[in-house]
């Protein structure tokens, strides 16, 4: 039987504190897994969740909130399905990671394209803490 909690994306996993967001954008490193730009910061301290995530879509590139929300839903869903590959090893090592997924393209991509980019991004993030 599959553990449904493994695939949940709870409120605690969302990066929402301004202090944490400022720390991530101030000291974090980044790479691109097109159409996503990923900014991450690895911390040695243990928090209640191993990975805190922020998803952002530019208002300048997508004027309509409907499009921005559609892209954010696709990015969050792609992360939710594959997050256990990233969270389980971090939890074992008692480390925390802040991650921001920024959508950088000017066009709306299909879920499969975003999912491939997310797989690539998670693979790169895994190599950063090994």
Strand order of the largest sheet: 1-2-4-3
Unreliable spans are: none
Beta-strand portion reads 15-25%
- Extended strand count: 4
Topology-level CATH name: Ribosomal Protein S5, domain 2
How would you characterize the largest beta sheet?
Answer: 4 strands, mixed
Structural class, by secondary structure, is alpha+beta
The helix/strand series, from N terminus to C terminus, equals HEEEHHEH
Ends distance? 30 Å
What is the number of domains? 1
Cα shape: globular
CATH class: Alpha Beta
Radius of gyration: 14 Å
Number of helices: 4
Mean pLDDT: 91
Give me the oligomer status: single chain
- The share of residues in helices is 40-55%
Description:
With 130 residues, this protein is of the alpha+beta class. The protein has one domain: 2-Layer Sandwich (Ribosomal Protein S5, domain 2), CATH 3.30.230.10. The chain has helices spanning 18-27, 65-82, 84-92, 111-129, and strands at 29-33, 36-43, 51-57, 96-103. It has a four-stranded mixed β-sheet, sandwiched between helices. α2 packs across α4 and α3 runs parallel beside α4. The longest helix is centred in the last third of the chain and has 19 residues, at 111-129.
Throw out a few tags for this protein.
130 residues, alpha+beta, Ribosomal Protein S5, domain 2, four-stranded mixed sheet, 4 helices, 4 strands, 43% helix, 22% strand
């Amino acid at each position: 039987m599959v553990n449904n909690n493994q695939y949940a994306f709870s409120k605690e996993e969302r990066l929402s504190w301004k202090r944490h967001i400022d720390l991530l954008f101030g000291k974090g490193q980044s790479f691109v897994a097109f159409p996503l730009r990923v900014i991450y910061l690895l911390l040695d301290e243990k928090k209640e969740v191993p990975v805190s995530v922020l998803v952002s879509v530019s208002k300048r590139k997508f004027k309509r909130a409907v499009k921005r929300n559609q892209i954010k839903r696709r990015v969050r869903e792609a992360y939710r399905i594959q997050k256990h590959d990233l969270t389980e090893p971090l939890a074992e090592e008692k480390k925390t990671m802040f991650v921001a997924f920024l959508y950088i393209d000017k066009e709306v991509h299909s879920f499969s394209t975003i999912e491939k980019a997310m797989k690539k991004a998670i693979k790169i993030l895994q190599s950063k803490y090994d």
